[in-house]
Structure formats: C-alpha cells, structure tokens
Amino acid sequence: MAFLILVIGDLHIPDRALDIPIKFKKLLAPGKISQTLCLGNLTDKPTYEYLRSIAPDLKIVKGRFDVEASSLPLTQVVTHGALRVGFLEGFTLVSNEPDLLLAEANRLDVDVLCWGGTHRFECFEYMDKFFINPGSVTGAFTANWSPVVEGKEEEEVVPSFCLMDVQGISLTLYVYQLRKDANGAENVAVEKVTYTKPVEPSGASS
To answer: 53, 62, 69, 141: which is deepest, by most CB within 10 A?
Structure first.
C-alpha cells in the first residue's frame, strides 16, 4: 500500500471560505492518507479536527492568520525514503522568487520544499530541488484579491491540494484542482508530476 502524504494549506475557514469542497472531501476519506503536511492558515479548531480524522499523523506550521496558534513552528522537516521534505506557510519569505525558495531549501537542508500563502498551485524543479505550492484547498480569496485588476477581471482562485507518493529517491505528485466548465459545473482535474533526486555516481572523485 502506498504511503500517501497530503499537502494542504490556506483553508481560511470560516473567514474566507465555508468549507472544503464536497468533491474534495469524498477523495480525502479516512484510511487513504498516511500523513498530512498542513501549510497553515487553518484558522479554526473544527478544521483541525477534520484534518486529524483524515490522518492522525498531522504536521502543521504556523500561517500568518493562525493568530491563536502561537506555539506552532514556522517550519518543519520530515523524511520519507531518501527525501527530506521541508514546509512552511511562506509569510517569512521576502518573495516567492526561485532563488529565495532555493535559499530556504538549502537553509533547511531539504530536497523538496512546500510553501503556501499565494493560494495558487505551482510546482517546479530548480537546481536539483523540487518546489511545491499546493494552493488553497477551499479556493479562499487572497488578502489583496480584487474582482477587477487594471481594467481586467481577475481570475478566481481554483481550489487545489496535492498528494505525494515517495518511493526511495523518487516522488510522484498528484495535483487535484476543482475546475468549472463552460456551464459552471465543477469537476476534479488531476495531474501527475514526477521528481527524482539526483544521485552522485558511485566512486565519484571528491
């Protein structure tokens, strides 16, 4: 059985969203997920209890809006297979530029860095490391969101979360996004992205 790791964040319940979408909850049934990495901005106790029901092994970092959770760490690191995975909400970062994310990954000495705070899914490989932003699982709007930006309608936040399956030096990332078709019907779209940690050739000269 695969050891699936849920990467989730920016829930903002009930301040900016009522709940996790029903179509997502059906996928996140108890017994399927082995560990959850929550990137903060839970903001309420019932949501915490719900995440615990999905997987008792729940790791959480402090988000900028988790004002009552003063004891939560700003960063955490877990190890799966040959990969070290670090995660944080992201409000301690000056920006989300790849070089700054790389510096944070190096500071934490991790192969994979998960960060949040932008409410937009993103993943990329850079300088042999893998970077994941799971987006907002509820589709909560960002603090600076506006219906119109520079005369154009700003796109709504697409609800999303990620599952990671780590096997040795390889990671398979499954990205789940709740998208609307032309008629407004919601459907879950799934994408798969893979990452393999580079390995020094055996017998390489120092």
So the answer is: 62
Tokens of 52: 């615990």
> CA-CA distance, 161 to 176, in Å (whole number)?
5
Q: b/e string for 110-132 if b means 16 or more Cβ within 10 A?
A: bbbbbbbbbbbbebeeeeebbbb
pLDDT in tens, 111-138: 999 998 888 999 999 999 999 999 999 9
Report CA Rg, the chain: 17
Tens-digit pLDDT profile for residues 8-49: 998 888 877 878 999 999 999 888 999 999 998 876 788 889
Residues with Cβ within 8 Å of 201's Cβ and at least 6 positions away in sequence, in order, are: none
